[in-house]
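re the bet — no i am not wrong, look at it urself. input seq straight from the record:
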Amino acid sequence: MTKIQILAHFIDGITGGNMSTASAYIADISRPEERARNFTLVGMAWGLGLVLGPALGAVLGQLNLVAPATIYLPGTSVELAPGGRGRA
């Protein structure tokens, strides 16, 4: 593994990007009659992210090795900021 891959795994680990966290959040905020629909939407978004995220990173990486980080870093910074949209 390269240093960039190790750094990417580290960042993913500290930001808690996993399906169980998303599922628990959906279970907590959804009304019972909307829960199945919301779980479906989260699953669809997760699947799209698994396919489109690496593809977008590969396309941007062909332009410049720093381009993927330049695109993804602002969104990650908003998530990690105190009171960011990632906070409940």
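see?? The chain has four helices and no strands. told u. also The mean pLDDT is 76. so pay up
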